[in-house]
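Model it.
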Amino acid sequence: MANVFVISDHHFGHKHIIDFESRPFSNAEEMTETMIEKWNAVVNKDDKVFHLGDFSFLNKEKTASIVSRLNGYKSFIMGNHDRGRSRRWWLDAGFDEVSEHAIVYGGFFFLSHEPMYMNKHMPYVNIHGHIHGQKYEGNQYINVSVEQWDYTPVSFEHIKSIVVPSEEQ
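Modeled.
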């Protein structure tokens, strides 16, 4: 059975993100190669990955080259840095699915780029990126920015284990 993963905010080609977020890379090329290796170390060809935005600052050709090197079926939710490009641009760059808006996964998880408003009485979980090294309190928010997960896609099984205690699963 294929696994499902989520991740966000790679910022491929954005050399200044290294300083902005204290990323442990000497340059953008090292960052790119390390993040591709970490993705492919956990994601198999038949797995699905939801990328929650801010994927690449590169042109279409260079972005497509990176996308083609990443394992799995890639579903993309556009982030704030991606919205200047059309949905078609991202499909042409190699993503299998592209959404301009948040989506609901499994009837319980809201997948979005920016964190969504969730009050404590709502029975849902918001899996998001955008805030990089920051975290919201509580189990209703899971930040999947690369900085939170050692630049590696995180499995939905792991997220479920955080959100739902094992005796309830």
